[in-house]
Amino acid sequence: MKKSSFARPELTWLRAFTFTVFGTSVLVASYFPLYYAQLGFTNSQIGLLYALGPMISLFANLLWSLTSDRYRTIKKILILLLIGQIIMTVVLSMSSTFSVIMISITIFYFFFYPVFPLTDTIAISTAKQYDKSFIMIRIFGSLGYATFAIVIGYVLTSIGSEWTLAVSMVITVAALIFSFFIKDRVSTVAKVDFSGIWSILKQKELLWFFGCVFCLALGLRMNDAFLTISLHDLGATQDLIGWAMLASAMTEVPIFLFLSIYGEKFKELPLLVFASLMFTVRFLLMGMTTSPYGIIGVQMMHGISFGVFYVTAIRMLTRLIPDDYRATGLALFTIMWSSASGLLSGTFGGMLFEYSGRTNFYLVAMAFSALACLGFASRYLYRKPTIQRQDIDLHS
């Protein structure tokens, strides 16, 4: 009881910090592209600016994680990263040419992307100390994303998209203030064992898994990069775009909770086939709809596509990879799911969207998802893997 009472203020500040930090991700992922469009950039240029983020995250996450380990602090690194974001947002607000913004946003991403894995790290450490569920802390990130999505939409509708960077600074300053009240933790994340990469890549099962993940991620990252542009082209206002972000963010919350409790009752491969099929249907409908309200409806499929896939993929990955190489395997998964796919989808997707149109853009995204679905289905139907069951705690 005493331990629980000590935990309450610390957990409250951490939840508030997590809630606010994910509000900044709404701006970068959803409203920054609209800001670039307002500056007159082409879809190809916007796609390139989007692709810079995953490229920078490849080494920025590792560098700042190593720095956190070296100096045995997470809180101070988070404060430094948030200050860096604020400074670079000021620089971006004073820039209007593509070349200057490309350099500035590259430096901004260097401070932006590492915040999220470090936030998860400090949340995991805190949850373990007080015997709490990590999900019940992390879920405040999803709630923050959903809340800021709708609030920012209405704010920018009222004051104009030219104030996007000013709104970003306000939210980042709020996150910085909260960061002073969270308790510091020593980074406990296992080091990536580069010597184990070859051992992992020799496993055909994992190569197949990463291939399917990469195909699925390409479609999702294409949608992430150009969802707001699609809505804008169809005449959606900023507040309506906020509702589209809210629709996707809120649907993943119940799915995460359900699968964290009951997910072990279902086999991984059928769930992955189902999720990939839902992605396929989702992108087909995205290409067919000609109404921003239709897109909001389609975004409601986010939970049964992304939510089901992500929880199940992490669960399967932890069972396929030996404990000694798990950190390495998770790093490779992140590269496939986020970094490499984001880089390719931003550059290739931008040109495709600009020269082939929105419908063909989403048909290509659908094709990638269908290919992943066939890959998971073929493994399940014809080459069922033998996976040794291990006790996996999805709450930590």
TrEMBL record:
GO terms for molecular function: lactose binding; lactose:proton symporter activity. PROSITE patterns: MFS (PS50850). Residues 172-396 form the Major facilitator superfamily (MFS) profile domain. The chain crosses the membrane at residues 12-34, 46-65, 77-94, 100-123, 135-157, 163-182, 203-220, 240-262, 269-288, 294-318, 330-353, 359-382. GO terms for cellular component: plasma membrane. Keywords: Cell inner membrane, Cell membrane, Membrane, Transmembrane, Transmembrane helix, Transport. SUPFAM superfamilies: MFS general substrate transporter. Pfam families: MFS_1_like (PF12832). It is found in: Cell inner membrane. It is a multi-pass membrane protein. Its main location: membrane. PANTHER family: 3-PHENYLPROPIONIC ACID TRANSPORTER-RELATED (PTHR23522:SF10), BLL5896 PROTEIN (PTHR23522). This is MFS transporter. It comes from Paenibacillus anaericanus. The lineage of its organism: Bacteria, Bacillati, Bacillota, Bacilli, Bacillales.
